[in-house]
Amino acid sequence: MDGNSANTIVFIVVLVVGMYMLVIRPNQQRAKQMRELVASLETGKRVMTAGGIWGTLRNVGEDSVEMEISPGVIIELEKAAVAKVHEDETGDA
User: Fold this and answer.
1) What CATH number did the domain enclosing 46 receive?
2) Of 37, 68, 77, 82, which is the most buried if we count CB atoms within 10 A?
3) What are phi and psi of 57, to 5 degrees?
4) Residue ranges, the chain, pLDDT below 50
């Protein structure tokens, strides 16, 4: 193997490792955080949807949640639509 071939192989390895570190690994970490967030959803928690709507969870089902966004106004959402849980406060919306 001559020097040019070795340089090409090293370049390809560095490129693959770089792609893993910059693209694949952060995506895996975000997916893990989302799975943990969805698993932690409980009735009474104050949450924000991906669209920026804040409310309180009233019912947590298998694939969806019911969220009260205003007194007496309840909407149903997919669990994946919940983007953030407000940790400091639980209770009415």
Assistant:
1) 2.30.30
2) 82
3) -70, 130
4) 90-93
CB 77 within 8 A of CB 41: no
Range(s) of the domain holding residue 93: 42-93
Mark whether 34 and 48 lie in a shared domain: no
Are 34 and 68 contained in the same domain? no
* Torsion angles phi and psi, residue 14, rounded to 5: -65, -40
Tally of domains within the chain: 2
| CA–CA distance, 16 with 53 (Å, rounded to integer) | 40
* Token pair belonging to 36: 């943990």
Task: For residues 69 and 3, give the distance between their C-alpha atoms in angstroms, rounded to a whole number.
Answer: 65
Note whether 45 and 33 are within 8 A (CB): no
Model confidence pTM above 0.70: no
d(CA 30, CA 24): 10
